[in-house]
Amino acid sequence: MRFSATSPSSFSRLLLALTLAAGLSGPALADVTLLNASYDVARDFYKDYNPMFTKHWQAKAGEKVEVKQSHGGSSKQVRAVADGLEADVVTMNQATDVDYLAEKGLVAKDYAKKFPNNASPYTSTMVFIVRKGNPKALKDWSDLAKSGVEVIVPHPKNTGNGRYTYLAAWGYALKQPGGNDKTALEFVGKILKNAPLFAAGGRDATTTFMQRRLGDVLVTFESEAELIAKEFGRGEFEVVYPSVSILAEFPVAVVDRVVDKKGSRKQAQAYLDYLWSKEGQENAAQNYLRPRDAEVLKKYATQFPNIKTFSVDEVFGGWTKAAKAHFVDGGSFDQLYVQK
Amino acid sequence: MSAKKNNVLPGFGLALGYTLVYLSVLVLIPLGGLVLKSTSLTFAQFWDIATTERALAAYRVTFGTSALAAVINAFFGLIVAWVLVRYDFFGKRLIDSFVDLPFALPTAVAGITLATLYSTNGWIGKHLEPLGLKVAYTPLGIVVALTFIGLPFVVRTLQPVIEDIEPEVEEAAATLGASRWQTFRRIIFPAIFPALLTGFALSFSRAVGEYGSVIFIAGNMPLISEITPLLIISKLEQYDYVGATALAVVMLGISFVLLLAINGLQWWAANRHNNRNTGGEQ
Amino acid sequence: MSVRRANTEPAWVRYTLLTLAFAFLALFLGVPLAAVFAEALRGGWEAYFGNLVDSESLHAVTLTLIVAAIAVPLNVAFGIAASWAIAKFEFRGKSLLITLIDLPFAVSPVIAGLIFVLMFGAQGYFGPWLFEHDVKIVFAVPGIILATLFVTFPFVAREMIPLMQAQGKDEEEAAVSLGASGLQMFWRVTLPNIKWGLLYGVILANARAMGEFGAVSVVSGHIRGETNTLPLHVEILYNEYNAIGAFASASVLALLALVTLVAKTLVEWRMRAETAMLTAELPPEKTN
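^ inputs. structure came back:
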């Protein structure tokens, strides 16, 4: 038995942990418990952030706060909250999701103004991941539309990553000389023709590109490049920054209906406020999310190359409009696929 | 009900009553809620959602690949069940136990694993590629995933029935001069045919609704490799609950009719078999 | 064992069938299973076990076992009742009833979860009432159990109906005419006859109950350490770029499903031992 030779400790740890698990469901030790419903790749960020906040709040208000996490696809999480998941706060990766909660009256209509920076404590942008040495010399969005290039993207209609990619390419086309909605539709259509498949999600797209070695370029969040390095090693790929890309914002909000019922508004508000503190911003930078705080951004400048970005609000007039024009049934994405 | 007249066995009322209550609480009422939700659409709206070009293509892909997968499972499932019950060989128990694996693995894991195996550089895919066969990210990939998740049904419905066949009957046939093939065709196959149909129906209906494993290997290209459950998810991503229920109701309706037909056939086959054996008792 | 001669095929048929069965199982079960373990063990045993002992994984295992332990017996009781009524009696609408029992399979797991959200969710039919009385069904353990019951609903019943049908009702009728009570008949005649079908039904239902992802995912709420079942945990780990953890948890699920198989083997051995004792005492005619 190899395992007993190499790791006698892991087995006794397993036993110990099993005995602990049996007695785990005792009464909570905390004064207040918060539930944070979040998107799936935010785990690393909040795993570090939650203990920081617990410590901060203990020192400031003398209260023990325990923060529980719920992670899943962004829209799915928001549907769960609307259907009764008692999350005190939501921390998402697209504004459409929080907009839905606002429309249902669960969060304030003006949630984006309740916190600085459009209620998004950090940002990211869409970048290209290419094979080592960039053999196809892919530099900008226009290279992705060339014939013979294979592009790996998550489903443009159903996933956050896919939608950001779609809008980024659309915005790039609009900014070209003579660019308008018609040329943009054509341009995005060319890129999507180069996609051999639509991956089920961001993670699936990465596996397809890195492990199954399909495609010449993967379009994904800048912050995800670091996760890819962690899983697959740094020597396998390069990150390419296009000439212009989209600003991905990650809106947060307090869920009024829940905090009013539980009486946890004060703690929930403080939990989100603390995201803008120096510690919170540093934590964002360490997780490769671009901090809003200029000083922190400067400190980590090497890890965040300059890139021109446009926001969804500037180019598309907000997420609600963008979704209506492109991602609802019969929107521009569907038009690309249904024969006339 | 007419059941009492010529039947001395007890417990009919209790058994059927319990069945109906349990069925209603757990299945009929919740599904009724689903249908009710979809009625907030007018018929014209419902029809528009249910018959878009993409929806029609998705039904074709979903039901076509499911039927193909169920046929594959029926054929190989029969062989596997036969081998597991009748033959002795090394490692039989171990192999028997792995038949349930497709249920135990979360569908997402199955999908990710199959996509990796069948993509052009995967353990299996790289041997198929030179033959010009692309599996991952084509409708063929959907068939592979659906065959995987439906595999246990045929094997597990046939096993107890094959175990139950009395050896005396086969021996009698053999003594009467029937060849092994004749015995199989005339005696064994009719006895296991109803169970085979049941296994087919279960494998098929499980495949029709499957989502988790398929999306990882399908490629999800509109009109080509897009399954109906993906369209339902797509509606939900737009917070369109009503549209999602409309598609779900269509799926439910088609599945219901198909299952009803298979079950009718199954029932007919079982009665014919029993009547022939007992000399017709009705 | 020695009377097998008349029941076996010629050797070449036997080997062809064995080869076909092996090839099919290897392709569709063996290779995927090997791939799961290969991924899980990519970082060695230390990483494998290290990923399994964190409290969230253990909680997920516990919750998964609890849910299966509740859902499977409920569906067994239903399965016995339904197959008794359907296989032993004639009544109108039987095909319809069987089809309705099958229906949960054809319902996409996502929809299976959604129907309970539509019923018990905050925007659902009973949601406001539940909210007022502070009863949590969806996004809590009861919702997970409901969804699991729904997706494993047909297994036991569908295993036993064809079996009971194939057996007919002569033996039970004989028992009753000899004056056995309903319960005696069930324990002494019916149960011994259906035990294999029942066992296969339990095995299937159990494996599916522990492995169900889609439906449970909709009603769970994904609260770590609270409403995360093992399959959900697997997906979350994978999405967080912890592939080893994800596949390690998946391998645990595969192993858990084997527990019922071990139980089946034990039952088989015991029964064979009993039969052997009986045949030693009795003339070797009837072994049942």
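The radius of gyration of chain C is 23 Å. Residues 152 and 205 of chain C are 5 Å apart (CA to CA).
thumbs up if we can close this ticket
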